[in-house]
Design brief:
The structure is a homodimer of 301-residue chains. Chain A is an alpha/beta fold and 301 residues long. The first copy, chain A, has helices spanning 47-55, 124-134, 167-177, 181-184, 191-203, 208-222, 226-244, 246-249, 261-272, 282-297; strands at 9-14, 19-25, 28-35, 66-69, 84-85, 96-97, 106-108, 112-114, 119-121, 140-144, 149-155, 158-165, 254-257, 278-280. The longest helix of chain A has 19 residues, at 226-244. The interface between A and B is large, with 47 and 46 residues.
Chain lengths: 301, 301
């Protein structure tokens, strides 16, 4: 890396299944790198080597501070960054220092917790902070689709409450490991089947386990297309979630952090309820949040 | 096998994960055998060798008819035994003959199908027929707990309608493969947590995906015992199922086919709704059904 591109700090988004790093000059990305060394496959002693393998070149001119968010700060991660209880701002200037060698400074952002209903987040608090930086003064509800989708109520710059749904993980388990896998693997997406399933699940969420088997039976008896079954599976899960999350989105200013298939599915399901949700790039929000954390903690580094 | 114990026919219960065979003299079991050669691990050409490996000794005195039920009759099984559409009696004298060598006669019982809502069963129809043989003239609702739990409405000796719930498979997937696995593996069963979760899910079935994550979060934040989390997971799934199956069990004569942990959980959940369900041994019902099939088809063998 030539000198004019040398970073003054490094942003790291380290989740269960991914590791993404960004060489930063202030708020500007000068280089990016990623690997599959997610927290889920690493033991505590593996984190520093995994990070150095990815960003070693960027440190050739000397160590620069690293700010990391995500599951890297969990009990099974590099260092446990304690949860901060809501209601609170998504970030503070208190970060947790990871154990390192040779002068490398790695600070990990704390997750958020909620006592009742019991809930936790790690990584999303950084996206929420980034979203607030990009949309100053915004009040309303954020939906962060993912393996564990989060609904977050924001007011006056604080996270008031949040709720996590395992819908994304259920979709993955059911479509890859259940008897339904024979019926949902394939191409295409039937928007009508998705909408009908959302509506059905919002009216009768108790029927989920029966509707799931019925998708398999309909395929056996009538040869349903995979594009129909897969969209219906997604619709059943998202519909049930929207029914439960109604106190979050009903009559609220709503935004979705994400731009992929799953985020578009949430947007379309919300639109059918008369809610027009803004969509925001989640990587941009993550980087804005990591930058905010860097700037607020710079004085202490 | 000495001559006085030589069977005059052989009963076979062949599911996705198990193969159970019974040497029969009329309605009496004279010997039993089982293996792990379930349908799920066999190709079509593997079925006859798998069966002979298990019951070869019983055929030493000559071939006797074999009557089989279960997934052995599915499209991925030994021979596809076509579905019979409800409403209909659980059994007829029309069985499907499997392709065999050396004069072995294997006949497979047909499954049942329902057009709308789309649904199928294979194996349970034999248990239902056996239950009716053991309880002549019985009208009401049968619950058959399993990977895919069935609720079956019986009237005047016919299956009027039925509904399958994937709750058992969801329990297995979530407890073994999801993020919740860290919180539910262990010993014990907290009956209070089960009852509270049943009640919660019956009132708010739409909250399932959030309640599931909350079990994990409560463990992370408060160190919940696995006996509590696992019973609550079961209660959330069974509670949602009871809410959807209410038209089946409400005000009906109800029986549960099964004697294990899962069957007791259904019984306890139904009792909390004021329904006292009779429990019947499912192996006994399977054997009675296979015997009924043998007797009604004997003339054609």
């Amino acid at each position: 890396m030539n000198k004019k591109c040398a970073p003054d700090w490094i942003a790291v988004d380290w989740g269960t299944t991914h590791l993404r790093a960004y060489a930063m000059q202030g708020a500007t990305v000068v280089s990016r790198a990623k690997s599959d060394d997610g927290m889920g496959r690493l033991k505590p002693a593996d984190f520093e080597p995994a990070l150095r393998a990815l960003i070693g070149d960027w440190l050739a001119g000397g160590n620069v501070p690293v700010i990391a968010c995500g599951m890297v700060g969990s009990r099974q991660g590099w260092v446990e960054a304690p949860y901060r209880a809501v209601p609170c701002a998504p970030l503070t200037d208190t970060l947790t220092t990871a154990p390192t060698t040779q002068g490398l400074e790695v600070r990990v952002i704390c997750g958020l917790s909620q006592n009742n209903p019991a809930d936790v987040m790690r990584g999303e608090e950084t996206q929420v902070a980034g979203f607030l930086h990009l949309n100053p003064g915004w009040d309303g509800v954020l939906c962060l689709p993912g393996t564990h989708t989060k609904w977050v109520h924001l007011s006056a710059g604080e996270v008031v409450s949040f709720q996590t749904f395992m819908s994304g993980e259920l979709f993955a388990l059911i479509s890859q490991n259940s008897v339904l896998r024979h019926s949902v693997i394939g191409e295409g997406w039937d928007a009508g089947a998705f909408e009908a399933a959302v509506s059905d699940a919002m009216s009768h969420p108790e029927r989920l386990a029966a509707r799931l088997f019925s998708l398999r039976a309909a395929d056996l008896l009538h040869g349903t297309a995979a594009s129909v079954s897969r969209a219906a599976l997604s619709g059943l899960l998202i519909g049930g979630e929207l029914a439960a999350a109604r106190p979050y989105w009903l009559g609220q200013n709503t935004a979705i952090l994400g731009t992929g298939t799953q985020a578009r599915a949430y947007q379309s399901a919300l639109r059918a309820q008369g809610v027009e949700a803004m969509r925001v790039d989640s990587e941009r929000a993550t980087l804005a949040g990591l930058t905010t954390a860097y700037k607020t903690t710079k004085a202490t580094l």
